[in-house]
Please model this.
Amino acid sequence: MSTVILVRHARSLANAENILAGQLPGVRLDPHGLHQSQTLSQSLGQIPIAKVFVSPLERCIATIDPWLARHGAGIPVESDPRIIEPDYGRWSGRKLDELALEPLWKDVQENPELVTFPNGERFLDVWHRVRSFYQALRDSVESEKIYLVISHGDIIKFLIANTLSMEFKSFQSLVVEPASISIAQFSDSQARLIQFNRSHETLAEYLQQLKSAPSQSMKPTLGGEVRAKNGAH
Model:
């Protein structure tokens, strides 16, 4: 079986301010996100990656740069527009708390296949382009080799949903936090998820953060989850 490591980008300045960044340029990692990128580099270590696929946006590239600098010599890196963040149109750059008051928000959470973001992408088109990437990835990976994908919260959710044969409308039941690692394995006839939303925290630390902000951990979102500013994600 081939192994694909799915990484959401580390915490960005927009994540820290609860802003939906979308495809806006120049969204960098915040100081905690830079620390997460270094920790991720240590976690990945010297594993033999056959190829890296990364979203074209700066925050994804910055997340994997420390690992590439240490261990990436000679490893092909492909920037793939199919795994870029959705174009949220006029919603880009706005606070998620404000967006949650919009009439469209209910469909985002419950009927995403009906959603077209104002002056932006149709959500179903995002699902289709990510599915195209997923199918191409499955067709191209070689047995026993390891691949790395760095992208955004909803895009990683879509990839996991495809791995698990989930319907589009159910993807919001998944939680994918900044700098988290999920791992899928593929064979000709099988796809399976073997790790999900893994972080560098201990289980006790993770559960304590959920306990300290239980309502936040269950709050509907868009673009991927982010815990408290002083937390690990």
